[in-house]
Description:
By secondary structure, the protein is mainly α.
Amino acid sequence: LIDAARVDGLGHFRIFFHIKLPLVLPTISLVSVLTFVANFNAFDLIYSVKGALAGPNFASDILGTFFYRTFFGNQLQLGNPTMGSAVATVMFFIILVGVCFYLFLVQRRIRRFAF
């Protein structure tokens, strides 16, 4: 495809945006969705290094450690199951919106380029 495009007189930028990028787009989009979901699963790393308080003044706090601290509590506060379930629901909807963005917008564009 690239050699045929060069014979037809396309430049480097048009080759990249019209040939290479549509061929690599499914891989890029899948890796970005998996990275997006994996960022919400980083609880074990932060909890093992910093504990439930997530560093000085909650500097390395993510939604996972915030959920744990809210639901189960720690030495500074008692746990609140209703507030913890609200945080978990917000986390679920954030991940759901990200994955739906991939499925409805990016996957539809990939299907349009399929032969």
